[in-house]
Each structure stands twice: as C-alpha cells, then as structure tokens.
Amino acid sequence: MSQSVEYSSFKHFLVTSPSEYVAHVEINRPSKLNAFTEEMWIELGKVFAKLSHDSEVRAVVFSGAGDRAFTAGLDVQAASQGSTLGHTGEQQDGARQATRLRRNILEFQDCISQIEKCEKPVICVMHGVAIGLAIDMSCCADVRICSKDTKFSVKEVDIGMAADIGTLSRLPKIVSSISWVKDVCLSARNFGADEALAVGFVSQVLESKGKAIEAAVKLATLISSKSPVAVQGTKELLNYSRDNTVENSLKYTSIWNGAMLQCDDFKTALMSGLKKTTPQFAKL
Prior knowledge:
Blueprint: E1 13-19, E2 22-27, H1 38-52, E3 59-64, E4 69-71, H2 76-81, H3 94-117, E5 122-126, E6 129-131, H4 133-140, E7 143-147, E8 151-153, H5 167-174, H6 178-187, E9 191-192, H7 193-198, E10 204-206, H8 209-224, H9 228-243, H10 246-260, H11 265-275
Parallel strand pairs: 2-3, 3-5, 4-6, 5-7, 6-8, 7-10
Antiparallel strand pairs: 1-2, 8-9
Helix pairs in contact: 1-3, 3-4, 4-5, 9-10
C-alpha cells in the first residue's frame, strides 16, 4: 500500500487505502512511542476534517505505527518547553494566564474531537502502550479494537492534572459502570485488554496488532459497501441519541430521514435485495 497522494503533505500521519473507500490513518512517530507534540494534534484535526468530506472515503481505520505503542499520550517534555501547558515565559496575572491556557485547551479538544465529528465511521485499533491521550482519541472513535498486549491507562492524575481532552466526558457514556470509570480515572492504574473488553470499552480483542488491523480493515470494508447516506446518517443519529432524550432523538430522526430517504440509495438497496445482486452506491 502506498501513501494516499491527497494526504502526503501530512508530516506525522501516514494515510493509505487498504481497500476501496477505506482510509487507514497511522500515527507515525514510532521512535517516540507515537507521543503527541502540539504540531501533531493540530495536524490530526486537519487529517480527520479532510477525511470527513472526502468522497473517496467511507470508513476510517485509525492506528499507531510500530510494534510498541498506539500512543504514549502527550509528549510531556515537549509540552513543558512550549505553550501546550500554558508556559509562555511572560509574567501575567492569573486571569490572563488562565484565559491563555483555556483557549489552548479548547483548541486541543477541538482537534481531537475531529475524530468524533468525522462524518465517516472511525475504527480505532490499539496495541502496546495506550495511555493518556490514547484514551481521549479512542473515546472519539465509533468502534474500538485492540490486541491482547494492549496496556491502557487514564494517566493524567499521575502528572498532576485532571484529564481535559475528552476522556472524563466521553468514557462514562461508553461503559456501563461509573464505578469502574472512577476506579481507573482516579488511580491512573493500568488495565489490560481483557478488562477493557469486559466493561465494553473495546468490542474485540485480537491475538496481535496485525490481526487487529486485519479485523478493522475487514469491518471497514464491509461498512464501506453499504449506502454512504445510510451509514453516515446512522452515525449522526447514534451520536445525537447518546447526548439527548429519546423524545428529542426521535424528532431529530424524523427530520433527518425526511430529507435522506429521498436519495436513490434506498431504492437501490431494496432492489438489490430482491434481485440478490450487490448494490453499487454513488459517492457522497
């Protein structure tokens, strides 16, 4: 697989196409355990914003390059030397320093949230070290898969802070036990693949990274064979229902489908089912 020409300008992410309509995004800093610098999280936001509107892409696999880590999270050393943690070298009063830091955090959050905002389903594959920012990013994904060697941790309390890029907002909505969420977030303890599967954080555990990538690409390929109108609508409506009441979600669904059922995909899918043929859907 060669790198997609459309995405070759990105420095820290390798984007390839393992099958038709599937993009594979790899964090590409394996020598540093794929730890994130400010330049990387800004670039991540741009990658997923571009994928969201790319008509050649219908599903995305997201993983980390190398054998040792999905990501070790934020590169704390690099962050402490730059503006990521609010250190500018200027002497400012508390309010101005807080405003600068708040704006920086919001920008960081927005970049990572582009994974969730991406119109296409995102399947996150984790292996090896998956700590801190790894949890923030994977919580934004639609499906999470890991290899059996994955070691997870919501690591932020160990560096003297509460996680602020999304884990504390999203993780309680992903797993059923708030007790477990508080357990891992307050302690920053490691947990493994089997525990992640037991609480529903991941949906599959595979023997190796290679097998996990293979399973993710297979799922992404299957999703990409479906109507892009139906798939993207399903993601939108599921995310909306997660954050709203049943009544409001039903109303939103009626408005959404009032528009989207006017597409040709509905008829194409019905007719292919009757004729037992493989449907082909126009790009979206």
